[in-house]
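If your schedule permits, I should be very grateful for your opinion on a structural question. The matter concerns a single protein, recorded as an amino acid sequence and a row of backbone structure tokens. Could you please explain, in whatever detail you think fit, how the structure tokens follow from the sequence? I set the record out below, with my sincere thanks for your time.

——
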Amino acid sequence: MFDFKKFMGNENPQPETVPDGETAEAVKLLRQGITRRLIVLAILILAGLLLSQIIVVTMPNEYVAIKQFGEVKSITTQPGVSFKLPFIQTVSWVPKDVWHYDMAISDVITQDKKTMVADSFVLWRVNDPIRFIRQASGSISQAESFIGNNSYNSLKNVISRLPQSEIISGRDTLAEQIFANLGGALDSYGVEMVAIETKHLDLPDDNKEAVYGRMISERNNIAAQYQAEGEEEYRMIKNETDKKVNILVSNANAQAAEIIAEGERQYMEILAEAYNDPEKADFYAFSRALDAAKASLKEGDTTLILGKDSPLAQIFYTN
């Protein structure tokens, strides 16, 4: 026969102990305190959840987009605290920082059909968070995908319009041309290009030496041409200068000859005037005699011996 009490594990149950009045009151108060604490805790948890659904904090390096049913309702651009509708509206954060994107190393073809290897990078940032969210779903990787495509197309277009020699010699301005060629291609995505730079723009290893050799030869030819043009210009300038110098010298000689002739003319007039006056003629003859006597003396001599028939002696004697 089945024994139910044995099955329950208590053949002789003891009566439950009933607490006295004070103990029952203490237990009641304890249970009420625990209940109140649980209610307060639940309220705090609910309040925290509600506040997290209402308060939105915007940091200085980000935009905050408030969405409602997937549509952007507002954009917060300044740092601080704002509010949204709980559970209905959601938040998307869009970075304001400048991002660095390394483009894949790729081959490009120059105007003269030469292959070059380009390794570039792009600096970009979001300038229109609404467009960025709509076109790129707020995804950095998706944005960098079309930034890379547009930048590569701009790089390829610029290089395809230039010969290889000009690209190598003008690498300092190449980035500016690529940036300008890009134009507003990224505006529709809500991003802007800050800079695009080429880390390496080199020749393929298999034809690098041949190209460099040809470029050196071309530069030597250009240098020889410049040197020849310089020498030709030097000869022209020298001939023109020599011509001007000869003209100036000829004019100076002619002027000097005129001055000398005028001086001789005046000299002859003075002589003629002197010879026409007997007193001046005698003085002039005496002066010339002194000069002749002085010229006939040898260095260190102080004595001049003249014969009586000498014209000098006659002049001195007469005077």
About this structure: Confidence is low (pLDDT under 50) at residues 4-11, 13-18. The longest helix spans residues 208-276. Strands lie at 55-58, 62-68, 71-76, 80-83, 89-95, 99-102, 106-109, 115-126, 191-202.
